[in-house]
Amino acid sequence: MEWLKRNQITVGAGLVILVAAYVFYAVNSNVATSMFSGAWFFAVPLVLGALTGVVGERSGVVNIGIEGQMLVAAFAAFFSAAATGSLIVGVLVGMLAGIAMGAFLALTTVKGLMDQIIAGVVINIVATGLTSFFYRPGKVLSANMPQWEVPLLSKIPLIGDVFFQSGPIALFALVSVPVVHFALFRTRWGLRTRSIGEYPSAADTAGIDVIRMRLVNVTIGGIFAGAAGAYLSMEATGGFERGMTAGRGFLALAILIFGGWRPLRVFAAALFFGFTNALASQLQGVISIPQQFITLLPYLLTLIVLAVAAGRVRAPAAVGQPFVKGEGS
Amino acid sequence: MSQEATQDSTQDTTQNTTRDRPVEATDRSAAPAERLLDIEGLSKSFGTVRANRDINLHVGRGEIVALLGENGAGKSTLVKQIFGLIKPDHGTITIKGDASPIKDPKDAIRRGIGMVHQHFQLVPVMTVAENMILGHETTSRGVLDIEGARQLVRELSDKHGLKVDPDVEVEDLPVGTQQRVEILKALSRRVDLLILDEPTAVLTPQETDELLTVMKELAAGGTSIVFITHKLREVLAVADRVYVLRQGGVVGEVATADTDARGLATMMVGRDVVLRVDKEEATPGDDVLSIRDLVVLDDRQLRAVDGFSLDVRAGEIVGVAGVEGNGQRELVEAIAGMRPPQSGRIDLLGKDITKANPHDTHLAGVGHIPEDRERHGLVASYSLADNLVLNRFSEKPFANGFVRDFDEVRKNAEALFTEFDIRAAGVQAMAGSLSGGNKQKVVVAREMSFRPKLLMAAQPTRGVDVGSIEFIHRRIVAARDAGAAVLLVSAELDEVLSLADRIAVIHGGKVVAEMPGKDADRTEIGRLMAGDH
């Protein structure tokens, strides 16, 4: 009950949107289903990328390298799947690549005290360079990613079609959102993670090992960006292209901020972006604007959203600041 | 002169407390108290600075021990070692007979040590309950037991009579309540020794008195307390014994029953402190500052200053006395141009400065020693030389057109270093590296060096050591004698009483009484400050 009270605006807005979606569905079920499916299709990597951001930044480490993490993971996932002929190996290697990139960020910034922004830029540049250099055209996957239907849930009109009949990585994203949200706000790990991102010296005096926790969180958090990369090259397209993340890592960052570093709101924000994108695709046939302008829309929206949201949401207070034991306090 | 030093005027309270004390002291010496903490030969250096040297100290069970010393005497370094935040170079710390090194705060907590830090170690965006359990959470099936945490807060606050709501986010609490949360947090684990690092620095006089009561109750219940302060009144009011630190070493250990304010002050600074401000009779001239019906809103948009009127003449010190939070901060900010008033009028030498910005206010001749020197007084990452011209760096002689004249800036700094006895590694040292007293001297030096028509000093000696307090007070009187009008705003009644030629008592944002400073009666002022008029 208290939870409802605290989140009444979010819950209320969610209900309004849900009702609107079903009205739309009642009017034209085909268009509605395809638009919302398109929205989720676009939103999956954004949600996953933003979750990496949530875990890292709630621990006090800025991650602007999500784009690079995703790109390397997309590359590693696709080529390992193509080489071994195993989709599972591909997905796992993608996730591991995300974790490895997370470990790089963690070691350079938390242990090495490198500036977090610079470390993120390095990740992005290195990712572009490496994946372009080692890219070999002409590889294909042995099979398409499977489509899974969740029993019962997939039978729900609209929601079932959009969310519960999809590939494994999209389902992973769907499950990850409430899991991370719950972990962040209801578990010991979450309380400690939030404390080291807000006021690390308080956590330190309470006997929490800030350095170790940041290292672990930033590293493990890379799993989501890794999954996002695997989604792009394996589940969404079935191929790797140079620079195929196309700024989605930065969109994920925008969504992270728009969602106020809270997984459930991040999910809503990502869907909103996805829906705008789907709407733009629909409009393509209706009004005569060059296609380039329409694909520009999500990025334009990012600028607007950030300009509006920037002053209203509050980042974890210690984000971006290295923690050195015994300093301050 | 200072709040600590004017013990003569507060003898009633101190004598009462010291009178009970010898009885307790003899009780303890009869049955040798269990040694809870024993420190031998403790030394710690940071680079070439010897922060602690060869310190010997012990604390018995249920004993309150004060660590007294000027800023930079090494008190905080000492307690941080007891709490395992930093490691000693030499020496041993024995807790309840166990002399093994204290590995980290967790180890210290496990061995029964709790610490309330000078800067609260609370996460502002978390609730009281969440802060309370941070680091030793209980969970059931992986889920945080927040209901248990709330219960814990309620039980502890009932048990110790410290009222606090478990569900409020810490950042929404007043400072005094945040401190309660800190104390409760320490008490939530079994604590034998509670360390309080300058607990009263941020408290109002009322909150201070409450804290002192709590400390006595805890000690009566068997908890030992080590507390850092540089306020002599508090030492005499609650401590059983005092260790006086100077330049990293213990220079004196004394039972409070055997000493008084003057004796402690002498030990602290190593020379006799002038306990009163010597000043001539004021010879006021014309009005310099004239405030009429001023209304200023606070951050919550409430009328903090509510119809305030006051005149300050050249060559006099007007002291604004009042309990903190009665509009003093907003008043000072309005005069300084930092907070636009809602209505009313502020004139300086007949010129309307009601809507002037801080720079124009400065140009009009107002020197401002701000209450929060860290935020409004200095730029920590700038050199001292730059900080000393912070309000005039673009004016002659410190600049020619667009180009700064670093020679002049340096010369100015060197002259002020001598004149104001600023102790630092050099004029190019970062302001942030100085102790509190020296930082304040830098601010005072800058604001006085341009011979302001009006000198506005807000809490000028807060968190400053006794030696610096004395110095700053003398400079304020000197500024008056040189013809400046001085507006002194202070929460320390003793400071106002010893400096002011005229006293205005503020309550609820307006002046409720004005009187000459010479023979003002502190009981009467106390009554007026409390809103009884």
From TrEMBL, chain A:
<feature type="transmembrane region" description="Helical">
    <location>
        <begin position="162"/>
        <end position="185"/>
    </location>
</feature>
<dbReference type="Pfam" id="PF02653">
    <property type="entry name" value="BPD_transp_2"/>
</dbReference>
<feature type="transmembrane region" description="Helical">
    <location>
        <begin position="240"/>
        <end position="259"/>
    </location>
</feature>
<feature type="transmembrane region" description="Helical">
    <location>
        <begin position="9"/>
        <end position="27"/>
    </location>
</feature>
<feature type="transmembrane region" description="Helical">
    <location>
        <begin position="33"/>
        <end position="54"/>
    </location>
</feature>
<keyword id="KW-1133">Transmembrane helix</keyword>
<feature type="transmembrane region" description="Helical">
    <location>
        <begin position="117"/>
        <end position="135"/>
    </location>
</feature>
<feature type="transmembrane region" description="Helical">
    <location>
        <begin position="87"/>
        <end position="110"/>
    </location>
</feature>
<feature type="transmembrane region" description="Helical">
    <location>
        <begin position="266"/>
        <end position="287"/>
    </location>
</feature>
<feature type="transmembrane region" description="Helical">
    <location>
        <begin position="61"/>
        <end position="81"/>
    </location>
</feature>
<feature type="transmembrane region" description="Helical">
    <location>
        <begin position="293"/>
        <end position="311"/>
    </location>
</feature>
<protein>
    <submittedName>
        <fullName>ABC transporter permease</fullName>
    </submittedName>
</protein>
<keyword id="KW-0472">Membrane</keyword>
<keyword id="KW-0812">Transmembrane</keyword>
<dbReference type="InterPro" id="IPR001851">
    <property type="entry name" value="ABC_transp_permease"/>
</dbReference>
<feature type="transmembrane region" description="Helical">
    <location>
        <begin position="215"/>
        <end position="234"/>
    </location>
</feature>
<keyword id="KW-1003">Cell membrane</keyword>
